[in-house]
From TrEMBL, chain A:
Origin species: Paenibacillus physcomitrellae
Family annotation (PANTHER family): LEUCINE ZIPPER PROTEIN 4, SPORE GERMINATION PROTEIN
Sorted UniProt keywords: Membrane, Transmembrane, Transmembrane helix
Annotated transmembrane regions: 311-333, 403-422, 434-459
Lineage, broadest ranks: Bacteria, Bacillati, Bacillota, Bacilli, Bacillales
Family that this chain belongs to: Belongs to the GerABKA family.
Name this polypeptide is given: Spore germination protein KA
Residue ranges of the region described as Disordered: 1-27, 511-530
UniProt keyword annotation of Cell membrane present: no
Automatic annotation (TrEMBL), chain B:
Main location: membrane
PROSITE patterns for this protein: PROKAR_LIPOPROTEIN
UniProt subcellular location: Membrane
NCBIfam families named among the record's database cross-references: spore_ger_x_C (TIGR02887)
The name this protein goes by in its record: Germination protein
Family stated for the protein in its record: Belongs to the GerABKC lipoprotein family.
Domain Spore germination protein N-terminal: 30-207
InterPro entries in the record: GerAC_N (IPR057336), Spore_GerAC-like (IPR008844), Spore_GerAC-like_C (IPR046953), Spore_GerAC_C_sf (IPR038501)
Pfam family, one: Spore_GerAC_N
Membrane topology designation: Lipid-anchor
PANTHER family: SPORE GERMINATION PROTEIN B3
Source organism of this protein record: Paenibacillus physcomitrellae
Keyword annotations from UniProtKB, A to Z: Germination, Lipoprotein, Membrane, Palmitate, Signal
Amino acid sequence: MSTSRPGIASQSNNSGPDSVPSSRPFTDSLEDNLNELLDRLGESADVVVRKLDSEDVLPIALVYIDGLINVDIINQSILQPLTNTLLQYKGKESKESAAEHLRAKLLPITQFQECKTFESAFSMLFEGHTLVFIDGNKVALSMDTTGWQMRSINEPTSQAVVRGPKEGFTENLRTGTSLLRRKIKSPDLWIEEYKIGARTQTNIALVYMKGITDDQILKEVRSRLNGIQTDAILESNYIEEFIQDGKWTPFPTIQNSERPDAVAAGILEGQVALLIDGTPFALLTPATFFSFFQSSEDYYQRYDVASFLRLIRVVSFFVSMTLPALYIAITTFHQEMVPTPLLVSLAAQREGVPFPALVEALVMELTFDVLREAGVRMPRAIGPAVSIVGALVLGQAAVQAGLVSAAMVIVVSFTAICNFVIPSQVISNALRLIRFVMMIAASVLGLFGITSFLMFLMIHMAGLSSVGVPYLSPVAPMTPRYLKDVFVRAPHSLLKIRPKLAAKQEAYRQAQMSKENLEHDSSNKGGQSP
Amino acid sequence: MNKLYLLGSKKWHTALCISLTAVLLGGCWDNRELNEIGISSGTAFDWIDNRWTITYQVINPLSSSGTMGSGGESNTPPFLTFTEQGTSIMEAISRSSMTSTRQLFFAHSRMTVFSENMARKGITEVLDLFLRKPDARETVNVFISRRKGRDILDQLMQSSKNQGAGVQLMMQQEANLSSYYPGIRMFELAVNLASESHCATIPEIKLSGQEVMDTTQETAITDLPSRLELGRLGVLKKDKLVGWLSIREAFGLTFLTDQIKTASISIASEPNKENVKDSSFSLLHSKTKVKPKWENDHFVMDVHIRGGGMLLQLSGDVDLNKPGEINRLEQNINKQVLSYIQDSWNALQKINADATGFATLVHRKYPRRWKQIKASGSWDKEFRAIEIRPHVSIKIERFGLGSKSYKNIEKE
């Protein structure tokens, strides 16, 4: 829909307009202004111009974009007062003072701005404001009449929990920030807004806790946001790919979440959240490898169960990454490792299978990925058909036809199930790719190949960082006191220190925060007891 | 600074070189699919007409595949055997590729059978092969058969489809529960033969009947006329089979070499009827200590056996509550064990093979004298002159319910 424009690179902030005549001011003439405005908008069908002019009355025009405004507000707060004023006016005063009068006294509306240029007028219009042009004035009045159709707050679909809040972000940015505000009632919750995307003018909120988030991180995120030179931001992944650290890695270095509670928890631990208008998925950065194994439900369940589940996730991660590769390696290289009865039974299953184990595994894994993709695309009504096809035709029938061995079906399906255990979709998607490379390594060099590839992955991961935070922290570099919330989840009463994300000033800040927390606690108690 | 940098880079180069050599040393260069290999579960070595005859037992996966897939036919044999001959072992082995459709895979082999005439000829060539071949497992159990080794491998087992594994289980159970003699694995055999005494023992495997049950229809009856069973204990001296110990003699040897796990001993309960073994004792733990001693002109072995267990069966007119009764029974047990040991010792002296490993003990205690013995090659003479002084002290730790035999209770 667009090409990148190097010409805009000189601008520090991308919120600036896109078209060549930058910042053209309005003229005196109402007619000229309206003509110019409509001309620039290409007389689009949804632009509504309402002129109020009669013989002895000051000419006034209302401009808004249909669908973005609330008609009731316009009727009650603009049209009604305006018509009253106009009736009273009858040319008594000058045109300038009329405008002043309107703005100061008459229009009962909360958000009220002045526009002097076409460009600012456009951005106001697209925000859902209504512009009032008054003849003889170089200033248009912009009033917030926002009111478009919005989705209500629903349960998050991608990160459902059994216990825990059931609200999720919506596409509306303001809803998102309000959900966060409702969770963190602290003046330290600071929200900065950016407009990114020369054409989409997407609002992006950078949310953080003043005093907890490391300034260094904040600075880095800000500068990366400001560095984005694009004309369209339609989803948070656009931002994620623009600001993530390494481009050439399958591992995500930025978390995303649909859950306000998860984002609030991240913010409270010093992460920076990015809410993007138009998508319910917020970003959290910096994110370490192990943060992808944490589910918000870990903190809503008893710690022992949560720890167990978290360990299961870590194990599933490795199983999902290596199981098909291990199967290939063991059945084609290291048959001596398998207990004899198992080997005999595996050999019996492979009897008559026409393909080598690698081909068998690749075919089955690809089949599963195709099924999974089909399941996502499939209309809901015929969705169950996919599972029938998958389970019966590709599983049982393929085994009975002797195309694949039964053990391979078990391996592939268990791998797939393990993949779904990981709470973060991004990292389980990364696994889907890594798995194939791993299988090829296993088919070439056996267990040795798997180990080599795992070491390669380890080295690669150790080299990654997320906004300056080492990707494998707190395991590498090892910080034992932060391990309480990595592989297991210690009881809340023991999680006294916030996991360190940035290297500097952490101890000092933690000390200050804990003192503040104490004071806060005592003041709370004081407030409740009387 | 520059020097340091160079040093660092050199280190990296070394690390890189080492990791690259590791690629070559990985040992898993050989990729083979499961349906290209024939999983061998047993091997037999025969010496027939001055030629090596090697029999492989290869698992037939189709018969073990349960209900899934195309296999599971009950009348296919669970394993197949191939026999090859050659003037050398390797020749016989390489000929196997001319009959077998699959590459033989030995890592899961569970037993190796030597025929008696092959064992009498000498087993060093086989040992060498096992220690050298990369895919041969030194953990296979070794057996000697008086019949041709291939007869043993052809015999079907009823409860265990994989015959090699079945025999291994049989051996393990025997060694654990009755302890007549322990099984021996290839590497133990090599170690024992290379030790100072140059002796080892190998259990005999035999068929209880004359026929070889080698078709699947034949095993479809409850009582097979011919089964695999463990027999006597073959004694090897300097890689050649030199004689046999009966099970009773082997049992004594197991006491002497401290390899008893649990065993049952039949004893006489009444003092006046010494030869009526009407009670039995289960030995649960036992420890043997052998101390060599040089006395005047010969070695004396002080054998101390301590053990304990429970009375399993008691007949006869005995009341354990009477003072001294338990003591007397213990004496009987000790006497019984002593007689096992003495029998075993006599048999060994007759064969003149130091299967007890006394040579190692002597070497440890009297290194100088051992040097002389070794130099003059007089251990055989010394061994014949050895006197053993066994001291057995086995305690009855439990005797179950009731202090009298059930027979006595009935009488009352």
